[in-house]
Amino acid sequence: MTISILIPVYNYDIITLVHSLAGGMKEVPEFCEIIIGDDGSTEEHRNKFRSLEDKNISLVVSNINIGRAAIRNKLALQAKGDFLLFLDADVRLPGTATAYLQGWLKHVRSAMAICGGTLYSENKPGDPDKFLRWQYGKTKEQKKASERNKHPYRYFSTFNVLINKTVFSKLRFYEEIRQYGHEDTLLGYQLKIAGINILHIDNGLVHEGMESNAEFLNKTKLGIENLSILFDKVTDKKTFSSCVALLRTYNILRLFRLTLIFAAAFIKYRERMERRLDSSTPSLRLFSFYKISMFCTYREIHRRRNLNPVF
């Protein structure tokens, strides 16, 4: 049994992470390789990635940015391992690499897809302009495995996930998703449709890449737009909705014919909400309203396009 570590990256310094993982692999030989996926980074970053290459570390290069889904698929095609460990580039090991890698071996035969979890620093960022991302992650994303396993598909994330290569090769990421957001939501839905169980364990990595409030709001917009497009493309909307908390809320609003009211509120108060969220005292309740009202707005836009279901 062998495991490939796959790290897609775009203009981010992963030198320390890769060196640490490579050191851990010497103690945990089941991990056979690290493959870095450079998704259109600058030449300066690419040269740094090339400096890491050796017999167990290789580099896959895309000269243009092809998106999070496509670069992950390219990495999987190159992988030699029986299992694929996908890691985001902006992660930090909370302890030793050896302990982290050994943490997977205890469970690798327990499920075809295993999520290790996401951690955040206990302390607020020193920059108040990053409070929204930290607060959201700490409150909504950092969950114990016991809680995530109550709703395994809802908490599925490719931030730190181990997937059986045979299973992944049958599903893969949907490459038409080019902009940021919800490619992992779709994969979680596909796993559920295929009857593939997801196991959550406590083997988390610390999310280091804290975007500014404005950057996070922009990523949220891209993700919400993607989610609305995917909602039209899936054939089983009930199952898809069960994987996303925001969709369950939307379905309730639609039942009571409130979606147009929420869309109107977004259009009227969007700038005011964004000013409040882009501050040193952001409100997660307001952020939740911001997201659902934005989604209602996109639904009104996208429902007129008559997209054909494909999943």
Describe the protein's architecture and organization.
The chain is of the alpha/beta class and about 300 residues long. It has 2 domains: about 210 residues, Spore Coat Polysaccharide Biosynthesis Protein SpsA, Chain A; about 90 residues, no CATH class. It contains 13 helices and 10 strands. The strands form 2 sheets. The chain has a 7-stranded mixed β-sheet with strand order 3-2-1-4-8-6-9, with helices on both faces. It is globular and about 60 Å long.
Could you write a compact summary of the structure shown?
This protein has 311 residues and is α/β, with parallel strands linked by helices. The chain has helices spanning 15-27, 43-50, 68-78, 97-105, 131-141, 145-148, 165-171, 183-193, 213-233, 237-242, 245-255, 259-277, 284-302, and strands at 3-9, 31-39, 57-62, 83-87, 91-92, 113-115, 118-119, 160-164, 198-200, 205-207.
How are the strands of the biggest sheet laid out side by side? 3-2-1-4-8-6-9
CATH superfamily of the largest domain: Spore Coat Polysaccharide Biosynthesis Protein SpsA, Chain A
**What is the domain total for the residues?**
2
Distance between the termini: 31 Å
| Total strands | 10
The CATH class of the largest domain is: Alpha Beta
Radius of gyration: 20 Å
For the largest beta-sheet, the strand count, sense and barrel status come to: 7 strands, mixed
Q: Could you tell me the CATH topology label of the largest domain.
A: Spore Coat Polysaccharide Biosynthesis Protein SpsA, Chain A
Q: Stretches where pLDDT falls below 50 for ≥5 residues?
A: none
Structural class of the helix and strand makeup? alpha/beta
Instruction: Provide the CATH architecture of the largest domain.
Output: Alpha-Beta Complex
Shape: globular
What's the order of the H and E elements? EHEHEHEEHEEHHEHHEEHHHHH
What is the arithmetic mean of pLDDT? 95
Helix content: 40-55%
Query: In percent, how much strand structure appears in the residues?
Result: 5-15%
Treating each run of at least 4 consecutive H or I residues as one helix, how many helices?
A: 13
